[in-house]
Amino acid sequence: MKTILITGANRGIGLELARRYASDGDKVLACCRNPQEATDLKALEGVKVFQLDVTDGASVKALKADLGDMPVDILINNAGINLEPQSFEEMDFDKWEETFRVNSIGPFRVVQALIDNVKAGKDKKIVTISSKMGSVGNVYYGGAIAYSSSKSAVNMVTKILANRFRDDGIIAVPLHPEWVRTDMGGPGARISAEESAAGLRKVIAGLTLAESGRFFQYDGEELPW
Ligand SMILES: NC(=O)c1ccc[n+]([C@@H]2O[C@H](COP(=O)([O-])OP(=O)(O)OC[C@H]3O[C@@H](n4cnc5c(N)ncnc54)[C@H](OP(=O)(O)O)[C@@H]3O)[C@@H](O)[C@H]2O)c1
After folding, report:
1. pTM
2. Structural domains in the chain, sorted by start
3. Alpha carbon distance, N-terminus to C-terminus of the chain
4. Exposed / middle / buried, residue 58 (Cβ in 10 Å: 0-12, 13-18, 19+)
5. Considering the chain, what percentage of its residues have pLDDT values greater than 90?
6. Are 11 and 182 in contact (CB under 8 A)?
7. Which residue's CA lies nearest to atom 36 of ligand 1?
8. Which distant-in-sequence residues (6+ apart) come within 8 Å of 224 by Cβ?
9. What is the residue with the minimal CA distance to atom 47 of ligand 1?
């Protein structure tokens, strides 16, 4: 049995990951901003729910205090936002800053607080759910300036974490979940949250230290930075 910590676990891809790990008998530490409203999450067996807003230092500190020295085998930075407007013509600068706080700085805040828990874990994996839209080498979309740049930034953060903790045996990667039918992805997206979570889980399970600091998508294909 592994211990998996997931941020933004109350809906979308995070909820689906929580469901799958829990149904396989793993222990899921499911983090969300509003546990009292997380009805679907709380209905899952084998899931322990924690309050966590990844932009709030006090919230991250409280999570660390709750966890203490508990080993975390896999830490999944899943929480993310994608706010409009964010085009060249029309940009909400406050929302762009908020996007960075959640998508780029949030994962760092969580890893910084929980690094000893990951070091104490067996798998020692840190996974950040990023996006192909953050791939500078593969820009296929001209809008979403705030979201795309926030994901490029978290890719860099993840690469630095991979370098920094390689000697501790920690594997850190960003993963693209594909375009997924969630509140963020919308109903017209390519795959379901179930398919995405199944793929992500397989990729995460197979990750080796040689792959740390590289960028993959949900089916295992490697992506350019
Ligand atoms: N869906 C796609 O097509 C797609 C494609 C590429 C990458 N991704 C990435 O995949 C991840 C999950 O996306 P999704 O599609 O599942 O999105 P979603 O359905 O919109 O869910 C986003 C999750 O993030 C949480 N969250 C937002 N701000 C937070 C904060 N400050 N602290 C803690 N949690 C916060 C939300 O909590 P609340 O319920 O409290 O708002 C929710 O649980 C994101 O990182 C996203 O960028 C998604």
Report:
1. 0.98
2. 3-217 (3.40.50.720)
3. 33
4. exposed
5. 96
6. yes
7. 8
8. 135, 136, 137, 138, 215
9. 80
- Render pLDDT for 50-97 as a digit per residue (tens, 0 to 9): 999 999 999 999 999 999 999 999 999 999 999 999 999 999 999 999
65 CA to centre of ligand 1 in angstroms? 24
Spacing of C-alpha 109 from chain mean position: 12
What the block records as the tokens of 178 is 């594909």
Those residues with Cβ within 8 angstroms of residue 162's Cβ, 6 or more apart along the chain or in another chain: 170, 171, 172, 173, 212, 213
Q: Residue 204, SS3?
A: helix
Average pLDDT, the chain: 97
Amino acid identity of 217?
Q
Residue among 22, 29, 32 at smallest CA distance from 4:
29
- Ligand 1, CB cutoff 6 Å, lining residues: 7-8, 10-14, 32-34, 52-55, 78-82, 102, 129, 131, 176-177, 179-180, 182-185, 189
Residue of 108, 184, 203, 216 to test ligand 1 pocket, by largest number of atoms within 8 Å of CB: 184
Model pLDDT for residues 114-151, shown as the tens digit of each residue: 999 999 999 999 999 999 999 998 876 678 999 999 99
